Amino acid sequence: MASFLLRLLRKPWVRKLLLVAAACIALFILLNSVLLPLYVNRQRTLPVPGVTGLPLQQAKDLLVKEGLEPVEADTRADPDQPVGTVVFQNPAASSMVKEGRRVYLTVSGGEIRVTVPQLRGRSLRDAKFALERYGLKLGGMAFERSDQYPENTIVAQSVPPDARIPRGSRVSITVSSGAGTGGTSVPNIVGKTVSEAERILQAAGLNVGNITYQQSYELIPNTVVEQFPRAGEAVPAGKAVDLFVIKAGRPAEEIQVPKR
Questions:
Q1: How far is CA 43 from CA 101, 142, 205, in A?
Q2: What is the value of pTM for the model shown?
């Protein structure tokens, strides 16, 4: 057997084959033990700087200076940060990353804005609900004579329809008092029971209008928590005053009682 191997090794093609195999093994060892670790570890690691709260361009300049790649990833509404300010970053500040790593930035789009609905021609109750659906609030009210719009109908609004304004803003309205004149001052009935409110309104020459019940566990049932028109407003004699009244129970959709 040994003599056969010796004769085989004397053949040139066998010696060449062995040399090629040895070279391949040496190359594999070199790649696996030396070159691959050098390639993997050739980039240095560094901490990510904190850029939240900075203007976008300033944040980008700082990241580039530190050897990182800034990427503007998203924009979101944020009422507490000016437009164009970084409000979130990924990776987070102080994270250890490879040099050249991308850092994704979320930028503030400013406060949330909503579209003002068309109120003219609506009833006072409908106008209030429409504003609430859009995330707005009813502001001041004024009354004026109108031959065009029926009593208790919106004839004008302080902010034009389709305008974009910050959510939570107030929109004032002007309400038709009908074709006649008005001069009765609306009494304050907030905090009164429905029966007390009715007596007070009748004594002032006014009537109870729509009663909208709002469920609550926290407030006393049958208590008036809001009125329209508001206390002190000058309205025509005999005008109906809408009441918002507490009803016991978990808050849910408001229940409307038709005008009497």
A1: 10, 70, 85
A2: 0.43
Q: Which carries the bigger pLDDT value, residue 252 or residue 210?
A: 210
Residue 143's DSSP bridge partners are 175
Instruction: Note the Cα 254 to chain centre separation in Å.
Output: 24
Q: How far apart are CA 255 and CA 88, in angstroms?
A: 42
CB 217 within 8 A of CB 248: yes
H/E element holding 198? helix 194-203
Parallel, antiparallel, or unpaired: how do β-strands 164-166 and 113-115 relate?
Answer: antiparallel
Residues contacting residue 174 through CB under 8 Å, at least 6 positions apart: 141, 142, 143, 144, 154, 155, 156, 157
Q: Facing residues of 46 across strands?
A: 97
197-211 residue pLDDT tens: 999 998 888 999 999
Q: Which residue type, as a one-letter code, is found at position 175? A: V
- Looking from the CA of 251 toward its CB, the CA atoms found within 13 Å total 3
pLDDT tens digits, one per residue of 16-60: 776 767 777 777 676 666 555 555 455 678 999 999 999 999 999
